[in-house]
Amino acid sequence: MSTSISTDRKRMSVDLLTPEGSVFSGQAWMVVAPSVSGELGILPRHQPIVAALRPGETRLKMLDDSQLVFATTTGYMSVEEDRVLILVEQAERADEI
Asked: Which residues contact 8 (CB under 8 A, 6 or more apart)?
């Protein structure tokens, strides 16, 4: 049994895009996004879904248990085969605001 959490954990490919380009592209084990009907948590092997997003906080749980937080505006999120695509009008890292 491995002692490294990140090698045992399932992962997803995550892309966070705005009209200006890519804000984030990498691997995460969980995504939490503000959908119009409430927060939506996505884990690996989630069923395919398309969700409308409202302005709020989008959180990416990284493989090393750190967390990246982005302030995002309206847009859409698509989940398919361990790939999460988030398309929003604007996104900024919360620690840079």
From this structure: 2
